[in-house]
Amino acid sequence: MMTPAGTFVTGLDTVFFMLLSGGWLFSLWVTISNSRLSRSISRLAVVAGAGMCINSLLLLGLRSLSMSGQSMDNLFSVMELVLWQTDFGKVWILRMMVSGLLFVWVLGMLGQTHPGKAFHRDSLGMALLLSILGWTLAATGHAADQGYLTMTMLTMWGHILTVSLWGGGIMTFVWLSRVYDGDDRDNKTWLALSQALSRTAGIALVLVVVTGMINGLQHLHGFSNLWDSSYGRILGIKVFLVMIMVLLGGSNRLKQLPRLVECDQRADMGAGFYRVMQQFLLIIRIEFVVLLGVISLAAWLSQTMPPMTTDIS
Description:
The protein is mainly α and 313 residues long. 81% of the residues lie in helices and 0% in strands.
């Protein structure tokens, strides 16, 4: 059982991975011609990449101490033992290598022209690295207890990737919204970004729900454990918060987004568009706050043992 500090660092791990995923996603949508947004995305990706590298070392230390029951005095010897003599450690070595390579990759993509052959090649490479990194996140959690090629493991891998695109998209949009000032020249870009995020979130949400249901059933071993176990109760609260996010996202998609499109159609891309966009941003910022709660519960859940009973009542 890890400490609250371990749970916090685990949550940070998810945040950094989501930010990297969101940064990659938005880099596909924002051209270099919009230099202000491009620079903001680049800064976000660099910070997230560096954070992922540092966090990997912190989390390795905390998990090594948790697994061994040793004190901080023996930290480095325990870490060495875990890294070289356990399957967990071998996966973690892969994770740290990919995290470092991903950080270097992000630095190499700074200032590249989009669209362009080099940009598309490097974007594909970054997507591959993110997929491998996502696999290592799944392989160092409960899903890998029965092996690395089981249905539980593969489903969790898919869940992590789709959740990161959904949550990372929200985080990145909120980050970029800091520079939104209602400039008429940028409003068409913001409309396009809002539409792209809404489409991607809709697709990702379907996959999140499907993989989440499969993972939940595989770990609960029976519906009664949803309320009879600590794991189930935490999971239930997490699902409730996800439902709130779905309602908030649905409100933006069904109400605010059509109004933004309407402003574009009637050439009201000034004050009218700005007022609707502010409402859109307010909802997505609330969604972001709820997302932080989901991430916190997911981190707590990852440190809580699933129920072992086979009761299916």
